[in-house]
Amino acid sequence: MIRWLTSRHAGILPRDGGDPWLAAVIAVLCCLACLSAVGALAADRAAHGWARQLRGEATVLVRPRVGETGAEAAARAAQTLAGVTGVEEAAAMDRETAEALLRPWVGDAVLADLPLPHLVTVRLEREAPASAVTLSRALAEAGVDAAVDDHSLWRREVERAAALITALAGAAFLLTAGAAGLAIVYATRAGMAAQRTLIETLSLNGAPDGRIAGLYQTRYGLLAAGAATAGTAVAMALVAGLRALGGADGVTPALPLAWSDVLMLSPCPLLAATVALVAARMTALARLRGGG
After folding, report:
1. DSSP result, 137-197
2. Could you list the residue range(s) of the whole structural domain that residue 96 is in?
3. Which of 56, 73, 81, 101 is in the most buried spot, having the most CB atoms within 10 Å?
4. Are residues 246 and 189 in the same domain?
C-alpha cells in the first residue's frame, strides 16, 4: 500500500530502505494509541455508570419494635418510603434474597442459623432523588426505627478510584500518541537528512523551495497515512470484536464499550498524516534555507 501511494514520486525521490520499518513503527504505535484512547473513554464511562447507580439507590436497615416481627417492620418501612417524593420504588428484602447475597461469602452451612438484618431497598428517581435526611425523617414520622445508608461513602470511594483509572488510561494514551508523533517526526527528519545532497541538487537546478518541500511532505504524509490506517484498522477490529463478544459491557463491566468507540478512531490516520506533512515541510525548508 505504501509503495503504491509513493510510486508517483519514485522517478524523483530515491526509495528509502527504512520506509517499511518506519511504516511498521507508526502502525504499531497508532494501534496502541487508539486502544489507549478507547480504554480511557471506557473507564470514564464506567466511572459515571458506577456513580450513577450508587446515587440512584439507598438501603434501609429496619429494627423491629417490641411485639413486631422483622418482616412486618420492613414492610411498614417500605410502604412509608414508597410515598416519599423522590423515591421511585421501595421494597422489603426477603430472606431468600438476603441469603443469595451472602451465600458466596459464607456458604450454605451457616445460612440457616445466621440472623439476617431486615433490609429495605430503595430506588430513587434519577432527576430529583430523595436525600438520606428526607428518608430518615419520613421513617421517624411513621414511627419506624431504621438507619438509612445512601451509599455516599462508597460512592466517593468508587468515584475516586474510577477517576484514577481514567487519568491513568488518559496518560497512557497521551504518552503513546506522543511517541507515535515523535517517531514520525524523527524518521522524517532522518530520512531527509540522508537525502540532503538530492535536496541541494534540486535547489541548484532551479526547483522552487516550496516544490521540493512538497515532494517530501507528500511522500512522508502518504507513508504515515497508510501505516496509521493499518494500525487503526487493527485497533478498530479489536474494539469491535470485544464489543460484539461482550455486549454493552465489552467483555467486562469495568470497561464498557460502545459502537461509537470504533468510529471515534477514524481520524487517527489523518492526524498521523498531518504530523508527517508538517515535519517534512519544516525540515525540507530548513535545509533549503541553510537552517538544517
Report:
1. HHHHHTT-EEEEE--HHHHHHHHHHHHHHHHHHHHHHHHHHHHHHHHHHHHHHHHHHHTHH
2. 53-155
3. 81
4. yes
The grid coordinates listed for 81 are: 418510603
Together in a domain, 79 and 183: no
What CA–CA distance (Å, rounded) separates 61 from 66?
Answer: 16
pLDDT in tens, the chain (292 residues): 434 333 444 445 555 555 787 788 888 888 888 888 888 788 778 777 777 777 788 888 888 888 878 788 888 888 888 888 888 888 888 777 777 777 777 777 666 777 778 888 888 888 888 888 888 888 888 888 888 887 777 777 777 877 787 788 778 778 877 877 777 677 667 766 776 777 677 767 777 767 777 777 777 788 888 888 999 999 999 888 888 877 666 666 667 888 888 888 888 888 888 887 887 777 767 766 664 4
DSSP 96-132: HHHHHHHHHHH-STTTTT----EEEEEEE-SSSPPPH
For residues 80 and 92, is the Cβ–Cβ distance under 8 A?
no
pTM of the model: 0.65
What is the number of domains present in the chain? 2
CA-to-CA distance for 135 and 164, rounded, in angstroms?
Answer: 32
CA terminus-to-terminus distance, the chain:
31
Instruction: Compute the chain's Rg from CA coordinates.
Output: 31
